[in-house]
Structure formats: C-alpha cells, structure tokens
Write a structure and sequence with these properties.
The protein contains five helices and 21 strands. It is an alpha+beta fold. The protein has one domain. Strand 20 and strand 21 form a beta hairpin.
Amino acid sequence: MNTASAHRLKFLVGLAGGLMVAGCGAGAQPPAPAGTGGVPSTGGVQIAGGMPSTGGVQIAGGTLSTGGVQIAGGTLSTGGVQIAGGTLSPSGVAGSSAATGSPDASVGGAGGSRDADSSLAEVAAPAQCPAPPAGAPADAITALNGENAARVAMGIPCASLVLSLCTSAQNHCNYYTTNLGNATCAAPSAHDEIAGCPQFTGADPGARIKAAGYSGMGWAECMAFLGDPAGAVKTFIDSVYHRTPVLSPWYRDFGYAEGTGCDTIDFGPGTSTAKTVTATYPYDGQIGVPISFNGATEGPTPPVPSTGWPSGYPITLYGQGITVSAHQIVVDGTTTPLAHIWLDGDSSLGTTAKVLYTEAPLSANTTYRVTIDGTSSAGSVHFDWSFTTGTAPTKPGGGRRG
C-alpha cells in the first residue's frame, strides 16, 4: 500500500432527527451512522456525509455483477457492486457522513482490471463518464477521474462533477486552513465550523452545501489533509468506513476542492440508480490489490484483529436489503477458510455496505476468492468473486484517520 505521512481520519452522519455515530456516507434507505471525533491533524483525512431522504433499497430479482453477485432470479448485469462510502489510504483520511434518507443505485459501465495500488494522479477521464462542466477546477477533475476510474472498473454509475458542491468544498477548506491553530475556531469535528469565525459558511456540511446552492435531498463530505486530489481519493478508497461515499452507487454528485493541507469532497445523491444494484471492492478480477490495512489510523477504529494491526485489505460488498448467512475468504484453489473480521450492521458502516478483512495481512501476488451467501426480498443470493494482490509494500501502511 502506498503510504504518506500519518494522519487521523473522521466522519459524521447527520440524520433527520439529529446526528448519530456511523460510518462514512451510505446510500440505502436506513441512513448510515457517522463517526465522531476531534479535529484531524494536518495530513489526515476526514469524511462527513448525509443521505437523501428518498426511498430505501431492496434487492428485487436476480442481478449478477461481475464481482460475482447473484440474486435469485438469475439476470446478469455487466456492472459490479456499488459502494456507499468513502475510503482512506494509509496516508490518513478522516471523514464524517450525514444522512437524511437514501437514494437508489443502478448498474453502471463495464468492468475491467485496474491496479489498485497504482497512483491515481495520471488517471484520465473514463470515456463512459460525463464530461465535467465548463469552468470546473483542474484539481476537481483530477479527483473525479480517480473516483470514476474505480467506479467504472466496478461496473457502477459514474459520478458527475457539480460546481455548487465544489463551491461548498472550497468554502470549507478556506475555513479549515484559515483557522488552523486557532483554538477559538477549532470545532469538535473538522467537518464543523463555528459561527463568527473567519470564512464561516455553515455549521455543518449539510448547511454549507445548501448555502452553496445544492438542492439534492442528502449529502456526504470527506476530508483529507494532503492537499492532493489523487492522493485523497486513494486514501478514502483504501479504508474500511471511508470507502463508502466515494464508491457508492447512491452518491453520484461530486465536488472537490483543496487548500494547503486540506482536501474536501462533498457528495450529493444525483441521478437515481436502481435499488437492485450490488457491487464489490476489490472487484472481480482486480489485480495489484494492497495486502494490508492499519485500522488504528481510522476513526472510529474498526474492530481490532486478534493479532493486532495491520489486518488484510478491506473487502466491501454493496447492496440493499441483503441478509447475509455465510461469508468466507480462501486462497483461490484451496478450501481452508481464513480467519477474518465481518462487519454487518456496524453503526459506522451503514446499511448498504458489509465489510470483511482477514485478521492477518494478505500474501503478496496471491489470488483470493470470496463467497457470501444470504437472502433478499427476491430470495437467495450468492456472491463469488476473486482478486489478486500486488507486491508487498516497502513500508507498512500508516496514517491516522479520525
């Protein structure tokens, strides 16, 4: 895993009735909770998010993603799994998510192989994705391209750049960088602002996004402290809780901005996507997948493996209305299950994502197979997919996330 300086990550989720602790933004009917935390240190990442209030998600009829998900009913889609959250890399991401409801998700474009451990800095805009609007900041386009490269490879809908969300994101980076080191204006969460302080535009992400002119029925926000759009996106993707909004099929509006040591991504629901969509990350056939994850750098901290951190790289299943009865990961071609942590219904994860990570780091240059079984409103579901790790990193994963 590529690493950067250590930093702490955080995220919040705001619900209609107030705030609750939960994971990075989610897109299912039951909004995902958000994590609490203090102000992240420079270099870290933070996520805050909310979900639209429209409709829940349920699996209807047999959708099979390229990631190996099959839902009773038997139809196949070229799409992979959509994720309702952001992620962070060992360089340190912090975030909060807020939700007032949840949008739908639909199957996106074709899959393919992509080296998960490669830099996103040189990623070009996928041909399947909409062009950014005129006047879009270059750094926002860089961040968007990195996110959409992963989404297209997963087979989920592209995110679209929305200038009002870029504005709200820029406003918050302006506040954060201006007031860094000012104890009077340091809010309990890096996603919050204090009225009366310089550059104040809204107490929380929802208020700032609305003030910037965004009218979507829900929101999410991710923050990193790198001043690097490509690095921030990768940092979010390489986490347990913060992966959710970045790759969510239910968050499709996107706005990025930066300042010195600040990256903010604001999300909105955007175009509705089908409730039947499922996806996985890593996706089926993905190569170059990192081998480990240091959950001590994420806040809230995921359950600690029995042997301590680092664990294996997080594996996420995205779907709505799925009840899981069995889950397993093996080295491909073998039958011995690997000891792992399973997160389902985690208050910090939300209801549209389920996460598995092995207690010990994965082996380099090795193919793993994941199988998950369960039920949905349409009947039984079966997910079966594989991915291959890359070369072991020269440095261990690091970076605090709050």
